[in-house]
Amino acid sequence: MSDKFDVIVIGAGPAGYVAAIRAAQLGLKTAVVDAFVGKDGKAALGGTCLNVGCIPSKALLDSSKQFHNLTHNFKDHGITAENPQIDIGTFIGRKDKIVKQFTGGVTMLFKANKVTSFFGKGKLLKGNEVEVTGNDGTVSKISATNVILASGSVPIELPFAKFDGTHIIDNAGALDLTAVPKRMGVIGAGVIGLELGSVWKRLGADVTVLEALPKFLAVADQDIAKMAAREFAKQGLDIKVNAKVTSAEVKGDEVHIGYTDKDGAAQSLVVDKLLVAVGRRAYTAGLLADDTGVKLDERGRIVVDEHNHTGVDGVWAIGDAVRGPMLAHKGSEEGVMVAELIAGKPGHVNLDTVPWVIYTEPEIAWVGKTEEQLKEEGIPYKTGAFPFAANGRAVAMNEGIGQVKMIAHAETDRILGVHMVGPVVSELIHECVVAMEFKGSSEDLARIVHAHPALSEVVHEAALSVDKRAIHKGN
Ligand code: FAD
Ligand code: NAD
User: Fold this and answer.
1) pTM of model > 0.85
2) Is 452 annotated as catalytic?
3) In this predicted model, what pLDDT tens digit does every residue of 189-223 receive, in sequence order?
4) Could you please report the per-residue DSSP string of 261-316?
5) Which of the two ends of the chain, N or C, has the fewest CB atoms closer than 10 A to its terminal CB?
């Protein structure tokens, strides 16, 4: 007889571990099966996000920003240092410590909430049984009334640039380099390419980013994308759009890359490290027995309804393994919703107000629709914008770069999207998420008192600017 639980979660990333904790809080007997093995060869909870994603990348972004400020920006404050150096061992070691602190934190939370952990690969069998192949090779079976699939995603590999872990690397490789490469190539000017490309650029690498699409950051509002592109160019990030990579060959200690430019002309690039960051795909290898009835879509994602139910009795799926943005907070909220639905409570996730943040310098953040999307959908809108250059706090911080752009419905004034590039916009965006979630208008934000001097005054002025009444700029 197999051990019986109320809920089994397969995958302990931010979607799965949050679902498990919420289920346990609601009094459900909960188990988690997770296969992730950390750098030290030991099981590590937290999935991609805590081990090789959100948290380690932010640790390296922060350290590299400090170094960049010391070498480039502190002199404006009258602060100088002779011959500043960075020790890569300490730089990576600090990141590893943070990762351990947070993955260990999930272990502690599981203990505190009485969530049972199984370390190994979980496979859903018919009838909500789960076969667990432990990291030590032992096979056992557990079962539950409800199973939540939270198996996450893995990097997409290009057939002509296969990961070798040394010269052609993925996100995990780029988070663990032992020295600053002299020349780094990045395929894909998406979120990972920009964040990890920035890390190594700030430490002195020559970074060239090759993007296949003709537009830079096509998913973002193009006013914001253009402003960000200008800043990245000033920092020396060489971003080539319309660059279609055709080959990547390791020769000795170099990678020789072939690509075509916007005119279709053949070009070449030689680098020491090549980061391939062309997107991620849902990971479902070995997750489902043939007869479970769980369906995958044309992109290999687990098919779910708006409540993340798979259509198979008691089987749910959340996070990167299903449709919607591949973001940690989106997966976590789906996890909470599913746990609450299982416990008989109401639950809902509004995918239209999931914020996006790119942690470059300046940061980029947005929520809701872009101007391009609204045009395409024929929705009438009005916009307002305000620059950080006119904000006292931003200028005092030496970070008067970028802007907040707000888009509201032309007739109802309801906020449809807010797009930002500038200092700490990763935090500023949330005021707009709340406003949108409460179906607020630009007038609502315009009438709310904002502290002075504060970066959030830029949001306030952008809201005023929708109605052409910003105070600190011409309208
Ligand atoms: P994952 O985090 O991928 O976790 C899935 C877990 O399931 C893994 O531990 C995996 O080993 C395990 N698993 C898979 N199959 C099985 C199985 N059959 N049996 C047992 N275990 C299994 N998102 C943000 O919101 N903000 C960021 O700043 C951010 N930065 C990122 C930076 C990088 C470099 C990368 C790569 C990603 C980043 N992301 C960020 C995306 C974020 O990491 C993902 O959206 C998030 O981790 C998805 O969570 P998840 O729980 O669905 O899956
Ligand atoms: P991405 O989808 O953000 O960007 C991939 C880029 O590669 C796109 O611009 C695409 O046009 C380009 N591309 C695709 N194929 C190409 C090719 N053959 N040659 C050149 N360019 C090509 O993917 P990513 O950067 O790998 O990140 C994956 C996902 O991880 C993100 O979409 C996001 O969901 C998540 N993530 C989030 C954060 C964050 O929230 N700050 C950080 C990192 C990753």
Assistant:
1) yes
2) yes
3) 999 999 999 999 999 999 999 999 999 999 999 99
4) -TTS-EEEEEESEEEE-S-EEE--TTTB-TTS---B-TTSPBP--TT-B-SSTTEE
5) N
